[in-house]
């Protein structure tokens, strides 16, 4: 069993292969079912409260996060997908800051 490394070329190749396999077997990719107005309102309120809390702590919500928030509210992302998109941004920002710190020490 080979290990998949996050963000590696090998991971991309594996995922592409898996998707091709599903398509060749006739798997159909469909859009997620539309969410109800009640669910959309629940999501919008959750995002509004979380944003307010983060801003009260003195942080700023980036445009990238706001775009992910909109996709979640509109039902394009489920809870797990939303968290993964946010975590991806966090990992990228952490890597950027770490590289910045290393270059400033050198």
Gyration radius, in Å: 18 Å
| Helical amount | 55-70%
Give the class from helix and strand content and strand pairing: mainly alpha
Number of helices: 4
Largest sheet: none
Enumerate the spans where pLDDT stays under 50 for 5 or more consecutive residues.
1-6
Query: SSE string, helix = H, strand = E?
Result: HHHH
Principal-axes geometry comes out as flat
- What's the quaternary structure here? single chain
Ends apart, CA distance between termini: 38 Å
Beta-strand share of residues: under 5%
Number of strands: 0
Rounded mean pLDDT score: 83
Spell out the key features of this protein.
flat; mainly alpha; 106 residues; single chain; disordered N terminus
What is the compact description of this entry?
The chain has 106 residues and is an all-alpha fold.
Please give a structural write-up.
The chain contains four helices and no strands. It is mainly α and 106 residues long. The N terminus is likely disordered.
């Amino acid at each position: 069993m080979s290990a998949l490394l996050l963000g590696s070329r090998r991971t991309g190749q594996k995922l592409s292969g898996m998707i091709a396999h599903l398509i060749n077997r006739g798997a159909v990719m469909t859009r997620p079912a539309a969410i109800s107005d009640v669910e959309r309102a629940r999501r919008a309120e959750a995002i509004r409260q979380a944003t307010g809390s983060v801003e009260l702590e003195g942080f700023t919500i980036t445009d990238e996060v706001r775009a992910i928030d909109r996709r979640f509210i509109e039902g394009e992302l489920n809870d797990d997908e939303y968290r993964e998109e946010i975590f991806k941004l966090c990992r990228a920002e952490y890597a950027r800051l770490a590289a910045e710190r290393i270059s400033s020490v050198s």
